[in-house]
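dumping this here so i dont lose it
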């Protein structure tokens, strides 16, 4: 059970919601990202302007209800990047939660408070969300386990949307056994078959720094010893991961503006400059550009699904390297963010499950190795994580 002390700087509100039933989460404490409804409390989405313009929720979000019903105890709501629209975890209004693995570095976002609470040992697991990497990147940055489940596998009712065709709940923990208990509580399908074939996408590995690749190699080697090898080839073919990232950016931002543009236009919220700039870009995406990107995404999804059949797991760096240092100007972190999305967009485009494992350290900062499988293989990925000793 996690401590109720908070060395992480993760919490917006401290409260206790006792379990509503016994179950697989008995004895475990968890924290909730500030995009999930808690009955009687305002869901703030990391934005004081959003919080002031919305009423308290009538009910708990569906994932929160499921966790409480399975014996989990919620101990508070934690920081999200503003409007869940960043990858670094530096909220200009509520501060930057602490990266316990390397306090010099950002914790990652937008599930910054969730990952900080887990990495700091304050809770046993934490509920976050992942649209463009908001669980996977923070998990890599802070040296914990973090999963993006198969898209649509977990109900999102009571969760503030951003880009619904990419949005999914996700969670962090320090042990594979806890990851599996949470997956069971949230209703993920049981293991049908374990992967037997390993894919190492050459273009994905090429995105990571030389130091990161070296740090990830021991775990990669263990996977190669456990599973049958697949042909080494680029998953994005001739099109390239940069093109896939650009397609993701248009689709994600256009959906984000469709969800929040009317509120931004009417309420004129006090958004942090980096978040405001991203929404300005989103507002300028034409209907024709969005339609074209959606058509390209359909082709990308088909290519990904063909590369990841039922018996296959792909392994590649979660992000290009360790987390950027805190307090750096956006211009200095944009390059990292753009490269990271070349890796993070893959699972999002095809709705695939992906889990990030703490696999090494570069200059004091953790780096993660990701396992990605076909739709519905979530619990198999967690089981493989356990077999690797996590």
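and the seq i came up w/
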């Amino acid at each position: 059970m996690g401590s109720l002390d908070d060395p992480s700087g993760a919490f917006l509100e401290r409260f206790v919601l006792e379990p509503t039933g016994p179950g697989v989460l008995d004895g475990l404490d968890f924290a909730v990202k500030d995009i999930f409804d808690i009955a009687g409390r305002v869901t703030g989405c990391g934005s004081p302007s959003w919080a002031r313009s919305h009423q308290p929720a009538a009910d708990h979000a569906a994932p929160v209800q499921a966790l409480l019903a399975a014996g989990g105890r919620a101990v508070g709501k934690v920081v999200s990047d503003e409007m869940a629209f960043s990858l670094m975890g530096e909220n200009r209004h509520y501060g930057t939660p602490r990266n316990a693995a390397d306090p010099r570095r950002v914790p990652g976002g937008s599930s910054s408070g969730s990952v900080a609470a887990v990495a700091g040992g304050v809770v046993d697991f934490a509920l976050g969300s992942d649209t463009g990497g908001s669980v996977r990147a923070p998990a890599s940055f802070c040296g914990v386990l973090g999963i993006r489940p198969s898209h649509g596998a977990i109900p999102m009712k009571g969760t503030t949307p951003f880009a619904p065709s990419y949005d999914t709940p996700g969670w962090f923990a320090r042990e594979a056994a806890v990851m599996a208990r949470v997956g069971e509580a949230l209703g993920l399908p049981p293991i049908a078959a374990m992967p037997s074939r390993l894919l190492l996408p050459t273009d994905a590995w090429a995105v990571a720094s030389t130091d990161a690749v070296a740090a990830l190699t021991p775990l990669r080697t263990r996977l190669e010893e456990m599973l049958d090898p697949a042909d080494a080839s680029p998953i994005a073919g001739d099109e390239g991961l940069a093109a896939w990232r650009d397609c993701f950016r248009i689709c994600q931002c256009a959906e984000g503006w469709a969800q929040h543009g009317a509120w931004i236009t009417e309420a004129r919220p006090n958004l942090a400059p980096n978040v405001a700039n991203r929404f300005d870009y989103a507002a300028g995406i034409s209907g024709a550009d969005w339609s074209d990107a959606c058509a390209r995404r359909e082709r990308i999804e088909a290519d990904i699904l063909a590369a990841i059949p039922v018996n296959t797991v792909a392994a590649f760096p979660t992000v290009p390297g360790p987390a950027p240092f805190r307090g750096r100007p956006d211009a200095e972190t944009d390059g990292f963010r753009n490269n990271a999305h070349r890796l993070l967009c893959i699972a999002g485009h095809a709705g695939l499950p992906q889990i990030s494992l703490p696999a090494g350290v570069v200059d004091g900062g953790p780096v993660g190795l990701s396992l990605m499988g076909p739709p519905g293989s979530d619990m198999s990925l967690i089981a493989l994580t356990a077999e690797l000793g996590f």
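DSSP finds twelve helices and eleven strands in the chain.
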